[in-house]
Design brief:
Shape: globular
Length: about 180
């Protein structure tokens, strides 16, 4: 849980790396979210899900804000809402996003009397059944905390995600055209 609203693209991916062409995937993963929380890297691991407040990814159009999260092997972000450009960059790079304001409110209520932490491990688990458009969140004891229908992930978006992003999808579509010609 990154319990903040308006985490901007500079908080996600530091601007000083934006125009460097030689930044490795490992370095991108290392600096991911460092301007938001310098402890983010030590508190997260591959396969985690970022849950954040509202308007995640606001700010500039830097695509690296999505790709550095993927470089950390984090494939899903749940937020109360997302910045429009960040949403588009996420789709283009096969980073999944879900808007679930109710989950943010539940978590904020759970931790309202706790010591503030920029990044907090909740011990909760989220399952997204894409074909059924259903999200189930369970606490560390396996109790269902939230079960909610979410917007359907359309077939075109699913194909883009499966192909690893928009570039992969375009290559796939061009190959289809070449083989049918």
């Amino acid at each position: 849980l990154c319990d903040a609203d308006n985490i901007n693209t500079d908080g996600i991916y530091p601007g000083k790396y934006t125009y460097q062409d030689d930044v490795s995937r490992e370095k991108m993963a290392q600096v991911c979210m460092e301007n938001y929380d310098s402890e983010f890297g030590s508190k997260t691991k591959a396969g985690d899900i970022i849950i954040s407040g509202f308007n995640f990814g606001t700010g500039s159009s830097r695509e690296q804000a999505a790709t550095c999260i993927l470089a950390r092997d984090i494939k899903l972000i749940v937020s109360g809402s997302f910045g429009n450009i960040f949403s588009r960059n996420s789709i283009n790079n096969a980073l999944l996003t879900l808007e679930i304001p109710e989950l943010i409110n539940i978590l904020r209520n759970k931790y309202k009397d706790s010591e503030p932490e920029l990044t907090r491990r909740t011990g909760w688990f989220l399952k997204w059944d894409v074909p059924k458009s259903l999200v189930t969140v369970k606490d560390s004891n396996g109790n269902i905390v939230l079960e909610q229908k979410v917007g359907e992930l359309g077939t075109n978006l699913q194909e883009i995600i499966i192909q690893g992003g928009l570039e992969g999808w375009v290559r796939s579509e061009l190959k289809k055209e070449e083989s049918s010609a």
